[in-house]
Design a protein that fits this description.
This protein has 497 residues and is α/β, with parallel strands linked by helices. The chain contains 20 helices and 7 strands. It starts with a strand and ends with a helix.
Length: 497
Amino acid sequence: MDTVWILGDQLRRDTGALAGCRPGEVRVLMVESDSKVGSGRWHRQRLHFVLASMRRFAEELKAEGFAVDYRRASSMRAGVIAHREEFKPERLRAMSPMSFDGLELLRALDVEVIDNDQFLCSAQEFAAWAGDRSNLKMEDFYRWQRQRLNILMDGKKPVGGTWNYDAENREPPPKDGRSWPAPIIDSLDATDARVIADIARRAPEAFGSSFDGLWATTRTGALARLHQFVDEVLPLFGPHEDAVMSTEWKLAHSALSPYLNIGLLHAREVVDAAHAAFNDGRIPIASAEGFIRQVIGWREYVWGLYWLWMPEYRELNVLEAESPLPAAFTGGETDMACISHTVKAIDERAWVHHIERLMVLGNLSLTSGVRPGALVDWMWKSFIDGAEWVMLPNVIGMALYADGGRMSTKPYASGGAYINKMSDHCGNCRYDPKKRIGEHACPFTTLYWDFLARNEPELRSNHRLGNQLGSMRKLKDLDAVRERAVEVRARLIDGSL
């Protein structure tokens, strides 16, 4: 009998190597790797989400009648070798993994690789689109996706006459005291109890709050969250998608990325649900377009770039940033309100939305010179939706500009003014976003001007930074700012800021 190997981020019945298979035709292999679970400082909820989802999916396959070899092994390699020795399958096949190293492992183990179909644009299709283009703009890719998938299109033109409503979706936090839809919380069961106990034994360095039912670990639960999002949350999504509020962790974001990233949901059904709601008149165009762009545009663009540029891409560091992570990222204290709030939210839920990732965590890491590999590893292990293919382009290309502009046209650096505009953190913070120097100067503001000065040789050819560099050169207190920045960077590392 043949064996189908299901990896932990491929938990879907009708995709990849398992698609079309019936009980009795194939045996299913699933492996929990002790070396992976115990490899460093994972968030407890991240580990729980993957392990519980894998175990529940295995039980669903058993209930359907499949013979399932679900085994715990010292490594993935060891698990596959042990399975082969015990069952001697005629063929062992698997869907192409979501990581470069995973694909290399399958090839080394002589596993038959089936194309990955968890995306609407395959890596091969993305490479064909990229071709010999000199500039791989996400907006160009997104419009191509809209056209070929016929999403929000009126013939050859975009519905509403506009491709992108991003300009309408940048409003600051609302001040009307509105309430946001409460998330679905599932009750924990015996499977959850066993996973919690396993993590305590197998992952001694794990951090963060224990799993509490916020994240679904079944397809049924993921579908319930999709339906709630489309019916109750998506109508509110657009205007405040870039806002940050201290009193509301999710606002109108979907928080569906974890389910997309391990197979409990597919991009096609998520987009179809949003598209149908718009066609029914239940969703305004700005909200529908903004959300669909995140799924068929940004998410698939990042996936395509990962496979187009790996493995060399993970080593890029054109700004020669070598500082360690700020102490506040890994449990240290800080008086920076936005950082303190964001890290606490990660500790509690293993999730914050894209602006907090890019313009709070990424921005501080960029301007203080954090080593790219350190931030990639931390984000991969800290976020419920973490994966190498997600984090590498988003950190190296988008957040840290470590690829020199191959992905984004400018560094996403800002001073405290941006955070003050888009969040409600600054009013209660000891640091003043308007000040560059002095004990109460906002570290973001100090570091922003120091970042431009420190990296001017690398950045001066970027036409999008002409005004900022010009303003930096006119600062009469630039020497004092840079002196203060040295102190700020040191105190970020020792946790005294």
